[in-house]
Structure formats: C-alpha cells, structure tokens
Amino acid sequence: MKKYTNISDIKNFSKAIQEALHLKKNPLEFSELGKNKTLGLLFFNSSLRTRLSTQKAALNLGMNPIVMNVSGDAWGIEFEDGTVMNTSTAEHIKEAAAVVSQYCDIIAVRAFPTLTDKAKDESEQVLSSFVKYASVPIVNMESATAHPLQGFTDAITITEHKKVNKPKVVLSWAPHVKALPHAVANSFIHAMQSMDVDFVITHPEGYDLNPKIIGNTPVIYNQGEALKDADFVYTKNWSAYNDYGKVLNTNTNWTITKEKLGAAKFMHCLPVRRNVVVEDAVLDSNSSIVIEQANNRTFAAQWVLKKILEDLK
Ligand code: CP
After folding, report:
1. What is the pLDDT of residue 251?
2. Which atom of ligand 1 is least distant from the CA of 270?
3. Where does this protein hold N(2)-succinyl-L-ornithine (predicted)?
4. DSSP states along the chain
5. Pocket of ligand 1, candidates 43, 48, 110: which has the most ligand atoms within 8 Å of its Cβ, to mutate?
6. With a threshold of 0.90, does the pTM exceed it?
7. Mutation probe of ligand 1 site: the residue of 270, 293, 297, 298 with most atoms within 8 A of C-beta
8. Is the reported ipTM for this assembly greater than 0.95?
C-alpha cells in the first residue's frame, strides 16, 4: 500500500477486516517490521483516540512515532501557490512536507475542513498538498471530507459484534451544539457500502450528505421508521452539506434514547456529548459498544501501517 487517504485504498475490504482482527489477537506478531522506521503524526486539530491509537499501532509494529501539534507549535504553513508570503504564514508546504519526509518514513496528517469554503474543503487542500509534496507515504488521520481510519474501525467492530450474516445498520444523525464535519459520516457510509449489510441512513430534511457519497444507499427522513429492527445504530452529527456548514436543527427529538435503540448495539466514533447526541442510559448500558469500537482504532491503524511498511522500498 502506497498511501491511506481513503477507504478505497483498501483493495480487499473483507480480507483486511479479518487481518485486522488477527492483529488484535496477536498485536506484537510483527513487532520487528517497523524497527528503525519513524512515523510522524502531524495534528492541525485536536485528537484523543486518533493520536494515541495510531501511536500505539506504530509501537506494536516496532516503529518510532513522533508527534507535532502543527497549528500550535509549528510555523504557519502556506498552502497556496505563488503567494507573496508577507502576512501570517511563514513556511510553504513545499518545504515543510519535503523536510518532514527526511525525518519520517510515513507521515500521518489530521486537518479538518473550514466548513465555510466548500470548494476548498472538497479539494482536500492540506492532505492533497502533503500527498503532492512529501516523498513518503501519507496516512489520513481525518481530513476535510474523510476519516478512513475510523470507517475501517467501524467495519471491524460491526464484523466482530454481528450476530446475523447480514445485519441491519442504521446511520442516524443526532443533534449537536456546534457545526461538525461530514468526514466520519462519509467514511462510515463508504465502509458500509463495502460490506454485506442492510444499510440505511436517517437524518432530518436539509441534512442530505454529498449525493456522490450516498449513491444508492436508502435515506429515510423518519428516524423511528429507519431504526426499526436495527442491529447496529451508528450515531453522528454533521452540519448541513447543501447549506454548507450550517446548523439547521438542534431538535432533541433526534437524540438517541434507550427506547429508540431497542435491541440494537449503539456505536459512535467519540467524543460524544452526553444527553445531547445520546442519553446516559444508552452509553451506560451493555448496548453501547463505543469503548470496544475505540479500542479497534489501534488495529485498524496497525493494519494500515503494516501494509505500508511492507511496501516501503
Ligand atoms: N474518533 C476520533 O477520531 O477521535 P479523536 O478525534 O479523539 O481522535
């Protein structure tokens, strides 16, 4: 594997899931593979799970992870070509990516969207610039439009917990106080479209996601109808896509409750706002698998790093 910027970089998805589950049982089996190799983790935005699980994955493979909070600690990076850099940015991505490539064998990047400039977000300016100007493989730790480490993790978790061959999986929008990105929902959709599941999306009107990502997946605006007989309820807030980045609805009628969940398992990428997105009674019950889901972040990242290490020259 030469990079991991999208779920589609995984060529055989079901095989990858099984291999990741094998790594979970044998986390140190390949602890020599990454010896003397360095993983650089660059964060333009906050993180708990991605930061720690990706480092843990690198350590399990014998790699040396090094981490930088780019927004807080590095020079301001310029991403536009031909800019006269006489304002706030001090270093161009051309130099920054080339320099970091000399220190690292793999570079992982987290850079969220603006949620104000749709065209810029959809161009994936930060991630694409690293792919273009770095000379080593790039891993996406959540970009403007995708969170493929999370989507892969979610597929692993559903495979691990499913009780029937073809479970019903519902992606349900839930309210939130802030405008949130589409990346997690996009990659979850991509992952579910790559699996043998009965997959449905539900959200209030006005929250339709990118139609190119939705494809033929059914969208139901009635949450109760969508949740009927679900085996897994994956809950996530996102801001409007058409009315780009806007919060149109904070209606707590969409909060996930124990009653709505029924016999289904509850999933969320975390962090989650209790009693806004989902009530305590769900998170504090055996129906919630969010902690196991977060644990699987390590093995999703470990599978990705292993595949890239195996292909390094
Ligand atoms: N789910 C997830 O990516 O968590 P963090 O933002 O804490 O990394």
Report:
1. 83
2. 1
3. 142, 176, 236, 273
4. ---BSSGGG-SSHHHHHHHHHHHHHSTTTTTTTTTT-EEEEEESS--SHHHHHHHHHHHHTT-EEEEEEHHHHSPPEE-STT----SS--EEHHHHHHHHHHH-SEEEEE----SS-HHHHHTTHHHHHHHHH-SS-EEESS-SS--HHHHHHHHHHHHHH-SSSS-EEEEEE---SS---SHHHHHHHHHHHTSS-EEEEE--TT----HHHHTT--EES-HHHHHTT-SEEEEE----TTTTT------GGGSB-HHHHTTPEEE--S---BTTTB-HHHHTSTTB-HHHHHHHHHHHHHHHHHHHHHH--
5. 48
6. yes
7. 270
8. yes
